[in-house]
Design brief:
Elements (H helix, E strand, L loop, with lengths): L3 E7 L4 H20 L2 E7 L5 H9 L3 E6 L3 E2 L2 E3 L5 E4 L12 E2 L10 H7 L4 E5 L23 H8 L1 H7 L4 H20 L3 H13 E5 L11 E2 L1 E12 L4 E12 L8 E8 L2 E8 L5 E9 L6 E9 L2 E2 L3 E2 L2 E9 L6 E13 L2 E12 L9 E6 L5 E6 L5 E9 L6 E8 L8 E8 L4 H25 L1
Parallel strand pairs: 1-2, 1-3, 3-7, 10-18
Antiparallel strand pairs: 4-5, 5-6, 8-9, 11-12, 12-15, 13-14, 13-16, 16-19, 17-18, 20-21, 21-24, 22-23, 22-25, 25-26
Helix pairs in contact: 4-6, 5-6, 6-7
């Protein structure tokens, strides 16, 4: 199958190229092939002027990317050999090539000059290009190998990946700048220097030429569209969220794509990712779990990236994003007073209260604090802790008027960050204060006798 060819400059002779070029040979080349673009790798000593110009002469070559040291008027390759400079004779085959390597200062004069000579589009840094990294001479199979350089790689090659997916040069450039900004915000939480470098790079990485230019479509290339949805469920008793991601990949010609989708879910609780194979109908589904400490709302960002498939047909990668919020959720509880008794002791009434606390599924809740309150007027309260079987026992005393024979007692569980509160109430009967009643009767009897004596004396 004939594919669009892209020249990848990958000199390998000093520290900057030792760090960056392995990713061109590994990860970038693999991702370009997944998008039906064939990388023409100029590695190490092959990153020279002669091989570059020969590669551009190929009628199927439509781009030059990669890395090389530069200055305002030119760019160098292996061992600082000049590859291209202002004033070179730009032959007709260059006039179909997008020129956008990573190089310092070439946006000052070289790239604008190339566009003036007929190159359709290009990108160039108008100042030095800065980056940070952890590793020298990595394998280069994945940006995740270097936890600093990855921010620059993901951002920079968004341009070429999107261009190979069929968008215009202007759209690909805008996507790249947006990705630089997004990666900068991610890096800001990790390394301030990396953040500052990313900001300088995207602010000074300029586009030149025709924003509407597109790479030609390779025969057999089929554009795809990824669709994704996500649902979340909070399980308070387990202190975890379950996030289910599902979707499908649709081909523009109606066929069913093959391949894999990488699903990534990110939140303040961490990051989870997994690769799942497309089903026979092009669908996919995967479930992630996140543990939490605090029962509060959590927003999850979801990305589903279809990696493409190259065989008799070439299905182009695509991706989709969505967000969801899992709300704070409490488990309902049921508090029941099973027994409430009262004993009068003069002005005081002693209440004995027992009961049980369960959740909505009937599971006993142990170690929870239940407040028991004797009501009417000035209240008295105490607290009890539930046992393994969810039961509790409490005693509380309160004074009542001598002739009062009923009062309310309450049991309340106020809830916590897992369980809702609940309460129960009982009206409890108790006798009057008989000592006071006796005194009252005696006083009434004495008053009646005194009245009788007075009446007798008057008569």
């Amino acid at each position: 199958m004939v594919v669009v060819k892209l020249v990848v400059l990958a000199p390998y002779y000093e520290i900057a190229t030792y760090i960056w070029s392995p990713y061109l040979r590994g990860w970038v080349a693999k991702e370009l092939r997944a998008r039906c673009a064939e990388p023409v790798l100029l590695w190490a000593d092959d990153a020279n002027r002669r091989k570059l110009w020969e590669a551009v002469k190929d009628t199927e070559t439509y781009g030059v990317l990669g890395v090389g040291h530069g200055w305002e008027k030119g760019i160098v390759g292996q061992k600082d050999e000049v590859l291209l400079r202002v004033g070179d004779e730009i032959t007709p085959e260059w006039k179909k090539v997008v020129f956008a390597p990573v190089s310092c200062l070439v946006g000052k004069e070289l790239v604008p000059w190339l566009v003036e000579q007929g190159v359709p589009a290009g990108i160039g840094e108008v100042t030095e290009y800065w980056f940070t990294a952890e590793k020298i001479n990595p394998s280069g199979e994945s940006p995740e190998e270097d936890q600093l350089l990855k921010y620059f790689l993901y951002a920079e090659y968004t341009f070429w990946f999107r261009l190979a997916e069929g968008v215009t040069a202007g759209e690909a450039y805008d996507a790249m700048i947006a990705e630089y900004q997004r990666q900068a915000e991610l890096a800001k939480q990790v390394d301030p220097m990396t953040y500052r470098c990313l900001v300088v790079d995207w602010q000074n990485r300029k586009f030149f030429g025709d924003r509407n230019y597109k790479l030609p479509l390779a025969p057999g290339r089929i554009l795809t569209r990824t669709e994704v949805s996500a649902a979340g469920k909070r399980l308070p008793k387990d202190r975890r969220d379950v996030v289910t991601v599902a979707g499908r990949v649709v081909a523009e010609d109606g066929s069913v794509p093959r391949g894999w989708v990488t699903v990534r879910v990110v939140s303040k609780l961490g990051e989870r990712s997994d690769s799942v194979a497309l089903g026979e109908d092009g669908t996919f589904s995967v479930v992630f779990e996140f543990q939490w400490e605090r029962n509060e709302d959590v927003e999850y960002s979801v990305t589903a990236a279809y990696g493409g498939w190259v065989g008799e047909r070439c299905y182009v990668p695509s991706r989709a994003e969505t967000t969801l919020t899992v709300k704070s959720t409490l488990v309902p509880t049921l508090l029941r007073i099973e027994k409430a008794v009262a004993v009068r002791d003069g002005p005081l009434v002693h209440f004995g209260v027992s009961g049980v606390l369960r959740d909505a599924d009937g599971v006993p809740l142990a170690g929870k604090v239940v407040e028991v309150v004797a009501g009417d007027g000035e209240i008295r309260r105490t607290w009890a802790e539930t046992r393994e079987d969810g039961t509790f026992v409490a005693e509380v005393s309160k004074s009542y008027p001598p002739l009062q024979t009923k009062a309310a007692v309450y049991a309340r569980f106020k809830g916590d960050d897992t369980y809702q509160g609940s309460e129960d109430m009982r009206i409890v009967a108790f006798p009057p204060n008989w000592d006071f009643v006796k005194i009252l009767v005696a006083a009434a009897t004495a008053a009646a006798l005194l009245l009788a004596l007075l009446l007798a004396a008057l008569l």
